[in-house]
Amino acid sequence: MAGQLSIAKALNDALRKSLESDPKTVLMGEDIGKLGGVFRITDGLQKDFGDDRVIDTPLAESGIVGTAIGLALRGYRPVVEIQFDGFVYPAFDQIVSQLAKMHARALGHVKMPVTVRIPFGGGIGAVEHHSESHEAYFAHTAGLRVVSPSNAHDAHWMLRQAIESDDPVVFLEPKRRYWDKGEVGEDPMLPLHSARIVRPGTDATLIAYGPMVKVCQEAAKAAEEDGRQLEVVDLRSLSPIDFPTLEESLKRTGRGIVVHEAPVFLGLGAELAARLTERCFYHLEAPILRVGGYHAPYPPSRVEETYLPDLDRVLDAVDRALAY
Amino acid sequence: MTVKSTARARKKAAPGVPDKTSAGSAAPELVQLLTPEGDRVEHPDYPLTVTPEELRALYRDLVLVRRFDAEATSLQRQGELGLWASLLGQEAAQVGSGRAMRPGDYAFPTYREHGVAWCRDVDPLNLLGMFRGVNNGGWDPNEKNFHLYTIVIGAQTLHATGYAMGITKDGADDAVIAYFGDGASSQGDVNEAFTFASVYNSPVVFFCQNNQWAISEPTTVQTRIPLYRRASGFGFPGVRVDGNDVLACLAVTRWALDHARTGQGPVLVEAFTYRMGAHTTSDDPTRYRQNEETEAWKAKDPILRLKAHLEKEGLADEAFFAEVEAESEKLGLRVREGVRSMPDPDPTLIFDHVYTEQHPLVDEERAEYEAYAASFEGGEHH
């Protein structure tokens, strides 16, 4: 897989490989057939694998996830596409009460190898309900695994790993990065639930995932010009979280800043800050700070840049952390 | 499939939007093969040939299912179960539809399908685990093709439809029954299941037990047309059957399953019945319904009518009824003893089966709990 691929193309290739390698894999979603999905992630797949395996569904999100559960019970491995983040809520019961709990309710007798792909996050100038970051709801739910890639390599391999998982996986795709290109390697390099230090540093650790990894990398680059060495950790997996990698980093840097688009209040950053404080208390020079969205509905697109964390807001938090 | 086209034609010929009361009235389209007095009647669309052995077997099913249910209600009153959802009055709907299934067919129940479970040969004690609080289901659904009980109203109809979509993909001739109630007919999931099953032509029978009450709400709160007619809007046949008539339920469900398994798509069966007891042991129906209504339904009892038929036709003697009674006593005893000796799970059950594969947070919390428990004298904390 030499050459540079966009995240979108890397995902498309991953779906193709999954369809090729396992005849039980089926894709389901709205407009994923001839159209190839509104983001073209399934482009060409129905043509090559047939409408029996790449299934255009009625416009009913609960129905999509609920029938995927039934297909999984029959031995299939469904990969469902939710068209936009804000459209997943009608399927909330099926994901949280049915899909997530089925394995435990059956005392292990059944497995739910269902992947729920959701383009998430803002920054694309969309109308409302098209820019949300709802990862905390899913990460809060036992029984679900939640992951989010930040680059083309991870997009490809993490999706294949997610589809191969016998547990349900919520796969959050950073839609504003769909067209960012990167190298996709020949093997995954990491297990699905490991974090990765994408930039080493000594003064503070920036923790991010999905679309915010790029922002943090840019912030670290800018900080370097001021003589500050920021470490950037790409979380990759939001449930479970790779705490050993984070602890090791924080114990070296003594300062941590979590960055996500989702509202700060009760967001993933709250859990990260609490747990890392418990585990690294004597190594910390400052409280773990959080940068994220506000406790407000996702704003109209003309003001979304105010809502979304950017380089300056990250560096502002770095300043505050270093001031302790 | 002349039967199918006849049924379809009949539904199409049905009058338009009727007045509100007809939603709660059994007349006029009710399929009945055995009158409340125990007389056999024929229906042109649903012929049924049953041997005396089969009739006696159905009677035995009905009696044993009712006995099991009564035993469970008593066990709840004795504190052995936290809750029980009684099927009293709905035995014929469940046994009739359950016995219409083939071994390869699959049932997706609500939490009240004890009679269907019986027909699928699920150990009744398995059903009691969740009501006692020792698990949240626990049986292997694929062992008897009987899915776990589903409590969120209507959610299982989508699972049933997805499973049926899988049958089509496999090219198999199995079929699925999705059980639900009159209350669930209002749920989005049920209507989405109708849509998916319809557009994919899936082999699923939607079996609605209209027991007239969704806890305290009568069917008039859910619908202004008879529920079976909802099917026509989705493009598949709907049939209303006397839910207290085990023969009619058997014949109609058998037809519906064959319709589904032969590639003709879904069917909605509305079994018109009555919830004789409370919604669950936590409910008090005296607050919302009249005794006279319940008394009127007593006259339509599913077991008495089959017994009357067996007696009138001389198809069963005293020895048979005594034998079933003795078997029912035995079942009651087995259920009582089984529940009372059902062990509480080890508290670490909490951490079992959350995921199929290793999950560090669950492992960590299990270890924390175990260390905490071990810190008590004797190493146990309950």
From TrEMBL, chain A:
CDD domains: TPP_PYR_E1-PDHc-beta_like. GO terms for molecular function: magnesium ion binding; oxidoreductase activity. The keyword DNA-binding does not apply. Residues 5-180 form the Transketolase-like pyrimidine-binding domain. Keywords: Oxidoreductase, Thiamine pyrophosphate. It holds the Pfam family Transketolase_C. It comes from the Bacteria. InterPro entries: THDP-binding (IPR029061), Transketo_C/PFOR_II (IPR009014), Transketolase-like_Pyr-bd (IPR005475), Transketolase_C (IPR033248). Its cofactor is thiamine diphosphate. The lineage of its organism: Bacteria, Bacillati, Actinomycetota, Actinomycetes, Kitasatosporales. This is 2-oxoisovalerate dehydrogenase.
TrEMBL record, chain B:
Signal peptide: none annotated. Its cofactor is thiamine diphosphate. The keyword Cell inner membrane does not apply. Residues 62-330 form the Dehydrogenase E1 component domain. GO terms for biological process: branched-chain amino acid catabolic process. Gene3D superfamilies: 3.40.50.970. It holds the Pfam family E1_dh. Keywords: Oxidoreductase, Pyruvate, Thiamine pyrophosphate. Residues 1-27 are annotated as: Disordered. InterPro entries: Alpha-ketoacid_DH_E1_comp, DH_E1, PdhA/BkdA, THDP-binding. GO terms for molecular function: magnesium ion binding; oxidoreductase activity, acting on the aldehyde or oxo group of donors, disulfide as acceptor. The keyword Oxidoreductase applies. NCBIfam families: PDH_E1_alph_x. This is Pyruvate dehydrogenase.
